[in-house]
Amino acid sequence: VDLGDFVTQPCRAKIIAAPANLWPRNPPIRYRAAIPTTWLEIAISEGKNRQVRRMTAAVGYPTLRLVRVAIGALDIFSLGLAPGESIDVPSNAPWQNTPNKHK
What we know:
By secondary structure, the protein is mainly β.
């Protein structure tokens, strides 16, 4: 996608069902009956500033909610963290030297 200041690397995108176990958004997204919403799964190989939001806006579909589920081969939800919670990741973590499953 050409974003003006750069062209994104190829990505994978697919429509998915709304996630069942997702925490509520605060503030909530305003529901509009005349404007349908769709959940997408997008896998990118680079992470430039606001890239996903800019990509969806460039094709006419603004991002209403963005949830990161993985960083490289690390599945964030497998860590069992609560929203806003964090952990220190050691530099020798097992996923550090594994290939990116989204490439």
